[in-house]
Design goal:
This protein has 343 residues and is an alpha/beta fold. 47% of the residues lie in helices and 13% in strands. It has helices at residues 6-16, 28-41, 51-57, 59-72, 88-97, 118-134, 166-176, 205-214, 230-238, 251-258, 269-285, 292-314, 328-336, and strands spanning 20-24, 45-50, 78-85, 101-104, 138-143, 180-183, 219-222, 262-267. The structure holds zinc ion (ZN). The site of zinc ion (ZN) has 6 residues, from loops.
């Protein structure tokens, strides 16, 4: 199966009424964890790399690792997605490299920190849509600004400063033609999302539902949606870590989102916690070990476990074999023929 477009995966998810987790990677072990989880749960998979990941691993290493994943797990529809492209040039380079989907985060200026104006966001996103669709590649845009900072990207804050305005969301989709829309509803990047279990005062599910009512056919994306489970925090702290108490987005809130148009859910922190906990445990219990495989194998297994659990909770499990892949070439034709025009 070739690498597929994210548009196809999300269209299928919308038909089936489920969500698809998009898991961040920086290295081979994380890619292996996701692919093993996808195989075990029979899930379609979105693997995403941020600018930070591309800098850490180098583009070509990442690209060929994804190609290897694709060859080794031919039964899994797999999307290679750029997370938080900060500029037209970043998205263009990802498309040229072979990513089948890109996010143009025009909610921030190219510095990745300063909120942009609506007009600036529309302009850069529309230009990315143009070059991406010409190649059959999917585009995710963002309207509203998320909280927190991760990999040096983000405006900081709690995530409530720039919650998405539903009217603007409608105008943004009409003017840009994006395939998927990331919205800001109070979530933040990183481990420290909420200081207590979130309720409607900090996690604005009502806004998400209002946006879905206005844009019933648009694939919504929830960012900063790790659940930051206490058991994973506890393992880290039990073996010498010093995480402060923190709360993520409860899985039941994500499931409410999925019932209201959310098709892509971004998860990174949960994987990071699982890996770090597993490594700390080996270091603490068997300090005489020094072969990296002794701690990377359990780390890989721990990440696989949390990814497989999320795949099941989001509903994508069991759907890997539902559909034949549409090639990027064919997607290119469909965009040109406007059979995939903006909703
Ligand atoms: Zn994000």
């Amino acid at each position: 199966m070739p690498l597929v477009s994210m548009r196809q995966l999300l269209d299928e998810a919308a038909k089936g009424g489920y969500g698809v987790g998009a898991f961040n990677v920086n290295n081979m072990e994380q890619i292996q964890s996701i692919m093993e989880a996808a195989r075990e749960t029979k899930s379609p998979a979105i693997i995403q790399a941020s600018r930070g990941a591309r800098a850490y691993s180098q583009d070509l290493f990442l690209y060929y690792l994804m190609r290897a994943a694709n060859e080794l797990y031919p039964e899994i529809p797999l999307v290679m997605h750029l997370d938080h492209g900060n500029s037209f040039e970043t998205c263009k380079s990802a498309i040229e490299l072979g990513f089948t989907s890109v996010m143009m985060d025009g909610s921030l200026l190219p510095d990745g920190k300063t909120p942009s104006t609506f007009e600036q966001n529309v302009d850069v996103t529309r230009r990315v849509v143009e070059i991406a669709h010409e190649k059959g590649v999917t585009v995710e845009g963002e309207i509203g600004v998320l909280g927190g900072i991760e990999d040096g990207h983000g405006a900081g804050g709690t995530g409530l400063e720039h919650v998405t305005d539903p009217d603007q969301a409608v105008e943004f989709v009409e003017k840009t033609g994006v395939d998927a829309l990331a919205i800001a509803i109070g979530t933040s990047h990183g481990a420290y999302k909420f200081t207590s279990k979130p309720d409607g005062s900090v996690l604005k599910m009502d806004i998400l539902i209002a946006i879905h009512k206005r844009l019933p056919n648009v694939h919504l994306v929830m960012h900063g949606s790790s659940s930051v489970p206490k058991d994973l925090q506890d393992i880290i702290n039990q073996y010498g870590g010093k995480l402060k108490p923190t709360w993520g987005v409860p899985v039941e809130e994500i499931q409410l989102g999925i019932r209201n148009g959310v098709r892509k859910i971004n998860v990174d922190t949960d994987s990071r916690l699982a890996i770090t906990g597993a490594i700390r445990k080996v270091f603490a219990e068997t300090p005489e070990k020094f072969d990296p495989r002794d701690y990377l194998k359990p780390a890989r297994e721990a990440m696989k476990k949390v990814v497989a659990l999320r795949m099941t909770q989001f509903g994508q499990a069991g759907h890997a074999g539902d559909y034949a892949p549409i090639s990027i070439e064919e997607m290119k034709k469909r965009y040109a023929a406007e059979t995939l025009a903006a909703k």
